[in-house]
Structure formats: C-alpha cells, structure tokens
Design brief:
Leucine-rich Repeat Variant; mainly alpha; single chain
C-alpha cells in the first residue's frame, strides 16, 4: 500500500509537459520533419518514438509516406503501431493494398498490418484477412483470427466455425478460433462450443475458452453446461465457467455463483465475486459481506467490496460506510470501500467521509487522508467544495495538491484568491506550479 501511495504522490509531483514543451513545435518540429524524410532508420525510429510520447500525432503526412512496400519492417511497424494506437485510419488504403501484394510474403510485415487494420476497425479488411486464415505461418494465422474476431463481418463467423471443425486445422489455432467465435457472438457455433466445454477429455485450454465464448454468446441454453463446469475437477475450468456466468440473467446463475464463493480455490472465488457485481444480485449481499470481512485472500475481499458497491442497496452501502470508517481495518479494504461509495452513493456517504477526514487530519501517517483526497479529487460535485478548501490548508504537500486538483475540476471560483496566494507563497515548488495552473483556470 505504501508503494501505491508514493507512486501516486510522485505522479503528482512530476509536471506533465505540453506538446510544445516537448519540442513538437517550431524548430524541433521542422527537425522531426527532415528526419522523417531523409534520416537514417535509427534516427527515424527515435523520432517516431518522440512523436508518440508527445501525446499527439504531428507530421501525419510525413509519417504516412513511410507506409510503403519499400520501408523496413521496423519503420512500418512503428508507424502503424502509432497510427493504430491513435485510431488514425489514413493508412488503411495503403495497408490493404500491401496486404494483398508483396507484403503477403513476409510474416514480419503482415502482423503489424493486421494489428493496424483491427485497431482502426477496417470493414474492408474482412476478405483479405479470411484469405490469411490458411497461411503457412502460424503467427499470421493467429493474428488474422484475432482481428477477424474483433472486426466481425458477414462471412467471418461461418468461416471461423468451419476452420475450427476442420481436422487439418493446426491445434495452435483452435484456442483463438474459439475465443473469436465468442467475440463475434456467433450463435450457430453454440453446439460445437458446448461439445468442447462438456468433454472432460478435451484440451483444457479449449474447454476454458469455450466457457468464455459461451458467456459471450449468452444463449441461455449454455447455462446447464456452465453450472456443470463449476464442479469440474480443474480449478481453472471452474473459474472460467464462473466468469462466463456474469453474462447471463442472475436469476438463473446466482445460486451457482454463491456456491463458487465457497470454492477452495481462490481463482474460482474471485471469478464468482466479480460475476456478482450486478445490481440484481441482492440475494448475495450477505455472503459477499462475509467474504469482504473474512475471506483469507486479499484479492477476494477487495473484489467482494467492489461487488457490494455495484449491487448497492441499504445493507451493502451501510456495510461499506462502516468499513471505510473502521480505523482498525486494512487501508486497502478501506480504500476499496471508499471507491465503491464514491461511485454508488457519494451524497449519502459524505457524513462518513467528513468523519474520517476529521479523525485523520492530524495523524502522522497521511495514508488514509491521501487516498481519500485522491478519490475525491477526481469527482465533480458541489457537495465537496468545503472539503477541497480544507485540503488546501493541510500540512502535507500531497493533500494540498489533491485539494488543488479538486478545486480545478469543480471550478470553485470563490477560492481563486486563496489559490493565487498559494501560487506565490506555498513552501513547496510542486504546489506553487499546480496552484499557478489552477488559478489560470478559475
């Protein structure tokens, strides 16, 4: 927990550089342009990295010119990964042309092209990708399957199902085919997936992924099979079945998920608790409270707390407020309870939040106050104005910084004079910098 606290603190103390400050304008921008046009490969790759780190995509036309058959594999991948991460579809026509041309012979070039087409949701990519399903290169086939599962298309589901049923299909592809059919929510594959999931002699990975796919398709005919998988001897199969049940009407699976919370394996309990993060799971509040209090695994307790927040209701929220205010409880669980309360019932939880702030205000260890301030600083609510104002006067620099973030987000104009004074007088330079930015925004 201390590591998380100081990591967050450090992130606050490091000012974010604007694009112009990163050298993306003026002379630096012109320098980048020249390197992209005429530089050696190592210089061009370094420049693409700088552009990516700037947070914007400068020189898009110059970058686009690097998407060509003559470019090296490294350059092609760097540009396409950058464009794909930003959702820039300008390279789509070039990539489609290359995909069916000479580039089809080089698996190292095909993979970044396939990833890019998936990232920009290229509808025109379906047929070229279907042709790559039978590639002699296994990695190309896997990349094509993943992309087709994300993109969909009228011919994709039937083609992937036929590939899965083909005795000549390489076994390494089958796991991804199963997952892709689920992502497509391809209902005609239901019987094939059930046969895989229900066969105890089948490959365990295939059975796990078949459970996931059945959950994605969410056809209620799969519920009996998933319930049965919760009794499978293999704990991973049980965990995947529990996760898949989250996609179904709770009236059909809630009892099975409650049994999953009693499983001796932590993975199954965790998956079951996560699947119960549903407002309809009111009948599971009691067992989730028990898990939040007494499960031997921290991750299960934290997930039970999160799920109680998702369920809501008087009993669950009362427990979360009690937990947040309990000074004897582990701070991880208290922070999880606060996050759930902020998401579900901030207004009703403000008295508990103020009580904790009062009690923690003068504590030598600011951890609880810091995670409370951090959680509130990301919320826009008029009911928090007095709390942010109070944070501005705390002796701890982290608390003051979160107070400033909250003032800025909530546009508390009446505090402009106080913030301006902090910009000039606060003893810590990080606070002065932040206060200067906030004062300009108010």
């Amino acid at each position: 927990m201390k590591a998380r606290f100081w990591a967050a603190a450090l992130a606050l103390l490091i000012p974010c550089a604007a694009f112009g400050q990163a050298g993306g304008q003026g002379e630096e921008l012109e320098n980048w342009r020249e390197i992209l046009r005429y530089g050696i490969e190592s210089e061009v790759l370094a420049t693409i990295k700088q552009i990516a780190e700037s947070g914007q995509v400068a020189l898009k036309e110059e970058l686009l010119e690097l998407v060509r058959p003559e470019s090296s594999t490294a350059l092609l991948q760097a540009v396409l990964d950058l464009f794909g991460s930003r959702g820039i579809a300008d390279a789509e026509p070039r990539v489609l042309k290359m995909l069916t041309g000479e580039g089809q012979n080089d698996p190292r070039r095909l993979e970044p092209m396939i990833r890019y087409l998936s990232a920009v949701h290229s509808r025109a990519a379906e047929q070229p990708l279907l042709q790559l399903l039978d590639s002699a290169n296994e990695q190309v086939g896997l990349a094509a399957i993943d992309a087709l599962g994300s993109l969909g298309g009228s011919a994709t589901g039937a083609r992937l199902q036929a590939k899965l049923a083909d005795p000549q299909c390489p076994e390494a592809l089958k796991s991804r085919l199963i997952l892709a059919l689920g992502k497509l929510m391809y209902a005609p594959a239901l019987e094939d997936l059930l046969r895989i999931a229900e066969n105890p002699d089948e490959n365990k990975i295939w059975r796990m992924y078949a459970a996931t796919a059945l959950g994605d398709i969410a056809d209620r005919r799969a519920v009996p099979a998933l319930r049965a998988l919760l009794s499978d001897p293999d704990s991973l199969v049980r965990a995947y079945a529990a996760s898949a049940m989250a996609q179904f009407d709770l009236s059909e699976v809630e009892g099975a998920l409650q049994e999953g919370l009693r499983d001796s394996d932590v993975k199954v309990r965790l998956a079951s608790a996560r699947a119960l993060a549903n407002p309809a799971a009111e009948r599971s509040v009691d067992i989730l409270i028990y898990k939040a209090r007494k499960d031997p695994e921290r991750q299960v307790r934290a997930q039970a707390i999160e799920s109680l927040g998702a369920i809501g209701g008087a009993q669950a929220l009362a427990f979360l407020r009690e937990l947040f205010q309990d000074g004897a409880s582990n701070s991880q669980y208290r922070e999880a309870a606060l996050a759930a309360l902020c998401a579900r019932d901030l207004a009703g939880s403000l008295p508990a939040i103020r009580a904790v702030i009062d009690r923690e205000w003068s504590q030598k260890n600011p951890q609880v106050l810091a995670f409370t301030a951090r959680a509130l600083a990301s919320i826009n609510s008029a009911g928090l104005d007095d709390i942010f104002e109070r944070f501005l006067g705390h002796s701890n620099v982290i608390i003051r910084l979160y107070g400033l973030r909250g003032v800025r987000l909530n546009k508390i104009h009446r505090l402009k004079a106080k913030v301006s004074a902090m910009a000039n007088e606060d003893p810590h330079p990080a606070v002065r910098r932040e206060a200067t930015i906030v004062a300009q925004d108010l």
